[in-house]
Amino acid sequence: MTAVSGAWHWLTTAAHWTGPDGVTHRLAEHLYFSGVALGLAVLLALPVAVALGHAGRGGTLAFALAAAGRAVPTFAVLTLLLVQLGSGSDWPVIIALVLFAVPPMLANTWVGMREVDRDVVEAARGMGMTGGQLLLRIELPLAMPLIWTGVRSAAVQVVATATLAAMAGFGGLGRIITAGFSRQVTAEVLAGAVLVAALALLVEGACAGVQRLVDPGGRPRARSAGDGPRDRARTTPGDRSSAPGPEEVPQR
After folding, report:
1. Counting Cβ atoms within 10 Å, is residue 171 exposed (0-12), middle (13-18) or buried (19+)?
2. CA 173, CA 160: separation in Å to the nearest integer?
3. Residues 19-28 as b or e (16 or more Cβ within 10 Å = b)
4. Could you read off the pLDDT of 76-128 as tens digits, one per residue?
5. In this model, does residue 58 exceed pLDDT 90?
6. What's the pLDDT band for 18 if we cut at 50, 70, 90?
7. What is the number of other CB atoms lying within 10 angstroms of the CB of residue 13?
8. Is the pLDDT of residue 150 over 60?
9. Contact at 8 Å (CB) between 154 and 224?
10. Other CB atoms within 10 A of residue 251 CB
11. Which of 84, 165, 196, 217 is 20 to 30 A from residue 229's alpha carbon, by CA?
């Protein structure tokens, strides 16, 4: 039996999906860690990045945190938090994942706010919009595609990285992988890896679907009456193209 067929057999065995060590329970733990961490990261990163981007400040801080988030190993942070906080709660895992998720959200949100067309902002300000109206009606809607890209990137990374919680003795789909290693069952290790990869792909697909809804530029633009004047401006009264068509000739 090859590793692939062994993993398929393991995944299709009903006994592996039930009980405290079953896939269903481990998946619920994995989603709990990922969901709580992602929600806290959104609450922490987005308001700060939106405020800094609206004010045009903090770009250096945003990119410095993004670089630090990529450089610092998550497992090292998790181990340090485990030593400081102990293993009596889930907070070491959640805090480590929050610290991992904040940098891409912070950087993308700041860039999204600063990439809003300044001419549009000045035109809205000239119409008498207040700072709050400018933020809610102009900047946030136009920046939303990049903001959501940061959330999407963080979500996929958090789902994949939450597997490391098992190496510190916590739950999640990573426990299937560590259990396979401890029992030296390659099929179980591969089955756990497949489950994590499938979950990350599902999260990516769900986020991509939401992004199509929040990205106004991603929809095909319908032709409108405003498309015509540009073409008409290129014609002159003497052009043959400006002559009325057969349907426009008045009938006698």
Report:
1. buried
2. 10
3. eeeebeebbe
4. 888 888 888 877 788 999 999 999 899 889 989 999 998 888 888 888 888 88
5. no
6. very high
7. 10
8. yes
9. no
10. 3
11. 217
Number of neighbours of residue 138 by Cβ within 10 angstroms: 18
Listed by start position, the domains of the chain span 26-215
Give the CA distances from residue 128 to residues 50, 89, 122, 123, in Å, rounded to whole numbers and listed in that order. Answer: 21, 51, 10, 9
Cβ atoms of 100 and 106 within 8 Å: the answer is no
Q: How many residues does the chain have?
A: 252
Q: pTM of this prediction? A: 0.79
- From CA 53, how far away is CA 49, in angstroms rounded? 6
> What is the per-residue pLDDT for 198?
96
Alpha-carbon distance of 64 to 58, in angstroms, equals 10
- d(CA 188, CA 176) in angstroms, rounded, equals 7
Q: Which CATH superfamily includes the segment(s) 26-215?
A: MetI-like (1.10.3720.10)
